[in-house]
Each structure stands twice: as C-alpha cells, then as structure tokens.
Design brief:
With 124 residues, this protein is mostly beta strands. It is built from no helices and nine strands. Strands 3, 4, 5, 6 and 7 form a five-stranded antiparallel sheet that branches. The N and C termini lie far apart (36 Å).
Length: 124
C-alpha cells in the first residue's frame, strides 16, 4: 500500500478501505467529454504528485495520458474502456455493440472532475 504512494490507515468505519490514494491523486479531465454516436470519449492527464521513488510505482513510470471511451451498448449495458499510447493489457474478448446509442437505456452517466476525474453510473 505505502509502496504505491497510498495512505494506510486502519479505520473503525465498517466497509471503509484501509488503503487509499491521497487526495489530489489520479487523473484530470482535459476537456469536456465529447459525445459520440454510441457514448462519450474523454482525454485525461495524470495529476502530478510529490516526487518520490516508489520503485515500480514511481511517478515517472505511471501512464501520464489516457483516453476513456464509454460505449452505450444496449439498454442494460455500457462498457468503459481506457487506452493510452503505451502498451497495456486489454481484455481479449469481443463484446458486440450496435454502434449507436440504445433507445431507452436504464442508466445515466455523469462525469466528475473535482478533485480528480470520475465516472458515475446511475440506474434509472
């Protein structure tokens, strides 16, 4: 936990994580998400944090720029895909999509940008 630059704190609150990233960690939304024919696409950049050598998790070894795509695949399912120009593992499965937004999705999607990027999916 601490090797990743996280905070380790045993809490008495039931269900609260004991290991978490400090406030201000993560990615920032560079521009407003752009609507596509079947969802959204957004450009993200890493929020710099205090320089520390955390071995394989040092700031210089983390992906600095990402793209996130949200595909509204049908009324019951959406897919969130993160990609970068750096080689990363992608789950090797094909998930069929109609290539257009569904007529009556049973969810809404909202984006957060403060203090860092987030995606909220709400069931209707």
């Amino acid at each position: 936990c601490e090797m990743r630059g996280c905070i380790y704190e045993e809490l008495e609150v039931e269900g609260a994580p004991w290991c978490y990233y400090p406030e201000g960690s993560g990615y920032r939304l560079e521009d407003e998400p752009v609507a596509t024919s079947d969802g959204y696409i957004a450009h993200l950049t890493r929020i710099p944090r205090a320089s520390s050598d955390n071995g394989p998790f040092s700031e210089s070894k983390l992906i600095q720029e990402l793209w996130v795509q949200i595909f509204f695949q049908n009324n019951h399912r959406l897919r969130i895909l993160f990609s970068s120009s750096e080689p990363t593992f992608q789950v090797p499965i094909d998930i069929p999509s109609e290539g257009k937004q569904p007529d009556n999705p049973l969810y809404n999607v909202a984006f957060t940008s403060d203090p860092s990027f987030g995606i909220r999916v709400y069931r209707r």
